[in-house]
Design goal:
single chain, about 475 residues, alpha+beta, Aminopeptidase, 2 domains, 3-stranded antiparallel β-sheet, 9 helices, about 20% helix, globular, binds tetradecanoyl-COA
């Protein structure tokens, strides 16, 4: 790659889960009052060459030890499931995340998940309202913290991530002797409610549209093996008060009560202990805007005109037979996607109902396309990307950065580079400013070739209560939103 282009690409800033971007944790960073009490490998543990027999659950499933009562919150705060089918509650969650969720390291951008996106991400087949865990200020009803999970199926190194637990879910009451402030989880130092901004509080929410504990999405075909945890968020005014460990323990309890003891999640921060450390790459689609908002910078010796030319794309997709994915394609495409993903060490597996939910195009949320063989009508390839804008903080001219993120794909005939080039063209036509991709799956086959620039932080992948050998990014087949 020419030097100027290399410099330009290197200058791309990333909007991603915050990452330290450094290598190994120092001794101090190795101390984790909460995480050191959890069933996860220690940071210092060498998990690079684990034998298959050493992989599996860290703590055996023990339904009798699962606490039946919710963890205690400090006075003035209470648990409150979030019902996304209720417009007001959906808006409240949107606002909490819009104002408090993940920012880049320089606090220039903040993820701005849309309400429709949140419904898509949090209401797949088998989802439960009780797994959309909110914390409200009792007096004002303000939503100030959140954590969520959804059911999924995953294999790690060829083994299903599930301890083959067969006990009935949601068992009868059992005594649980631990209390939440063991293990660094105390949240008793929270500030008084009065210190929260309560000027624009919404009225108390109306009755929930579905009963707590009922499915929030359509029914899953099979019992899930684990959950995927996401959207952990604590209001900025409640930070560093040990509320996050309480949220994590409460969602763990609720998942355990349903008979599940494993989870997958990603974070920009380094915690004990990543199973993979991955990196975002960024492909400019609208370089002028990206430079104006400080997402990228003009490389030395590059003019704006040359930069725009460098990133220009054809108007139309180039692959013959490329068309939007249709409902009727879901069954064969689900099988092909599962086959493709099964080659990765960390591999999700979808039912057809889940495939339909996750992959069928929903404008403004997720976009999917297939290549159909003209003669046989067989689907040979698939690409998809999702829409995750970011708020641009403190810029008068531009308020929103429109980012497309590479999602699931398979390719059996068209070269991946050609497919992804079409994804860029389609994303550009949909007026995205940038196309992001992690270095997972087979993405390193196209990243440099298609002029992606490397981002500036890592995204760590984690498994909860499952010891497994650490893998390279190219062995990860899982995309978390
Ligand atoms: S990743 C996205 C996380 N969200 C954000 O980054 C949004 C902006 N930040 C915030 O809202 C807060 O800073 C958060 C921490 C909420 C992140 N994952 O309450 P604290 C540990 C896990 O005083 P706060 C996503 O959503 C930290 O190391 N732990 O801190 C996936 C420390 O523990 P230790 C984290 O800053 C979430 C403790 O929290 C994270 O006020 C997966 C401090 O607590 C993090 N991203 O709040 C969750 N950040 O002392 C795990 C900090 O030990 C799921 N911490 O170092 C586990 C599986 C559960 C289900 C199991 C089922 C079986």
């Amino acid at each position: 790659m020419p030097q100027a282009q290399q410099e330009l690409l290197a200058g791309l800033e990333s909007v991603q889960k915050p990452g330290r971007g450094d290598g190994e944790a120092s001794d101090d960073k190795n101390k984790h009052a909460f995480w050191d009490t959890q069933p996860v490998p220690k940071l210092g543990e060498d998990t690079s060459g684990l034998e298959p027999t050493a992989m599996g659950p860290i703590d055996p499933p023990d339904m009798a030890a699962v606490r039946t009562e919710p963890y205690n919150l400090p006075a003035s705060f209470e648990w409150s499931d979030v019902h996304l089918n209720d417009e007001d509650q959906a808006k409240e969650l949107y606002t909490l995340l819009h104002e408090n969720y993940v920012e880049d390291g320089d606090n220039m951008f903040r993820f701005d998940y849309s309400i429709e996106f949140l419904r898509w991400a949090l209401q797949p087949p088998g989802s439960l309202n009780e797994w959309l865990v909110g914390v409200r200020v009792t007096q004002t009803r303000k939503l100030v913290a959140f954590i969520s999970c959804t059911p999924a199926e995953l294999s790690a190194h060829g083994t299903r991530v599930n301890p083959h637990h067969t006990a009935a879910a949601a068992p009868a009451a059992a005594e649980y002797t631990k209390n939440y402030d063991e293990g660094g989880g105390s949240a008793d130092a929270l500030p008084d409610v009065a210190s929260l901004s309560v000027a624009d509080l919404p009225p108390p929410p109306p009755a929930a549209p579905t009963a707590s504990g009922t499915a929030a999405g359509e029914g899953a075909d099979e019992e899930p093996g684990l959950v995927e945890v996401n959207f952990l968020c604590v209001h900025k005014k409640l930070r560093s008060k040990r509320l996050a460990p309480v949220l994590i323990k409460e969602i763990t309890r609720r998942v355990n009560r349903r008979g599940l003891f494993q989870a997958a999640y990603t974070a920009g921060v380094v915690l004990p202990k990543p199973i993979a450390r991955c990196r975002y790459w960024h492909r400019s689609l609208n370089p002028k805007k990206l430079i104006e908002v400080g997402f990228s910078r003009l490389a030395p010796r590059m003019t704006m005109a040359r930069t725009v030319k460098l990133y220009s794309l054809p108007d139309q997709p180039q692959t013959q037979g490329l068309r939007p994915l249709r409902e009727a394609d879901c069954e064969p495409c689900c099988a092909k996607l599962n086959t493709f993903l099964s080659k990765f060490a960390i591999a999700p597996k979808f039912t057809v109902a889940e495939f339909r939910h996750w992959i069928l195009t929903q404008p403004g949320v997720v976009y999917s396309y297939v290549v159909e063989e003209p003669g046989t009508k067989e689907i040979t390839d698939m690409i998809s990307f999702y829409s995750l804008p970011s708020s641009i903080l403190g810029n008068d001219k531009h308020r929103k950065l429109c980012a497309a993120y590479s999602y699931y794909y398979f390719s059996t005939k068209t070269p991946l580079c050609a497919l992804m080039n079409d994804a860029l063209i389609l994303a550009k036509r949909l007026e995205f400013d940038v196309f992001n991709a992690l270095d997972i799956l087979k993405n390193d086959e196209y990243l440099k070739e298609l002029k992606f620039g490397i981002g500036d932080g890592n995204l760590q992948y984690y498994l909860y209560n499952w010891r497994a050998a650490q893998v390279a990014p190219g062995q990860v087949g899982l995309v978390l939103l």
